[in-house]
UniProtKB/TrEMBL annotation:
The chain crosses the membrane at residues 25-46, 58-79, 91-114, 126-147, 159-178, 184-201, 213-233. Keywords: Membrane, Transmembrane, Transmembrane helix. It comes from the Bacteria. This is Adenylate cyclase.
Length: 247
């Protein structure tokens, strides 16, 4: 009677499934992006490049909300990967509430920061406002889309990754030498975001044999967000509104 050969040790290795490979890849990438996010903001503050005591209360509130959301994103990825759905699902709704608060406070931070004259000098006021508004809106729309696809694990986890890639904009803003780059800094930022997305696409190509449509949609969202910011800050009525906040 024929028997199948097993590797040394007498136990056959279980085949790697796309789901298991996804768990490892997206879980590790979530941790890496979260660590990069916290490092970027921490080193920026420790170098004395921002006076936290002079920040308005809404900025501190937004920071706490976003830190909580990023931390929960990592925890949620781990809970899903380990099959602990009894925790993953209720915490997901807590994350949705945090995301809604993040959008609301994000809009408020942009408006208040501009009205108090706390915009960095290398930022055009209208560009800064367009950036904060569009980033907040894109974040909220993508989170809502991910929640709508929560029963489709492959879509949900990839859309949540795209949300984190959107959040890399302020992270990169604290890592790149923006004052030395002038108005060109937006291009390296977008390139870095697309590079992370391409890294995930490469994983999908190897594991699934094709790029998942959620990542393609994510790439379109990143480019649309970028293009909208560029157009909005040049739009006359919006510029007038932004400049009116500074007076």
């Amino acid at each position: 009677m024929a028997t199948s050969a097993s590797p040394a040790g007498g136990q056959a290795k279980r085949p790697k499934t796309p789901f298991a490979a996804d768990n490892r890849f997206y879980g590790r990438l979530a941790v890496a992006l979260a660590l990069l996010t916290f490092f970027a903001f921490a080193q920026f503050s420790l170098r004395g490049l921002t006076d936290m005591t002079a920040m308005p209360a809404i900025t501190h509130l937004h920071a706490v909300i976003m830190a909580g959301w990023v931390g929960l994103y990592v925890v949620q990825g781990w809970l899903a990967a380990t099959g602990q759905l009894s925790w993953h699902r209720p915490l997901g709704w807590a994350g949705a509430a945090l995301a809604a608060l993040a959008v609301a406070t994000g809009f408020a931070v942009g408006t208040v920061t501009l009205s108090l004259g706390r915009v960095p000098p290398f930022f055009d006021p209208a560009y800064f406002l367009a950036l904060t508004y569009c980033q907040s809106l894109t974040f909220g729309v993508l989170v809502a889309l991910a929640i709508a696809n929560r029963k489709r694990t492959d879509w949900h986890r990839r859309l949540m990754l795209v949300v984190m890639i959107v959040l890399l904009e302020p992270v990169l803003g604290r890592l790149l030498p923006l004052p030395l780059m002038g108005t060109w800094f937006v291009w390296p930022q977008l390139a870095a975001q697309l590079l992370v997305l391409a890294f995930a696409m490469r994983h999908d190509g190897k594991v699934l044999g094709e790029v998942h449509p959620a990542l393609t949609l994510g790439g379109a969202a990143l480019i649309a967000n970028f293009a909208t910011i560029q157009l909005l800050h040049r739009f006359g009525p919006f510029r007038d509104y932004a400049l009116g906040l500074t007076s």
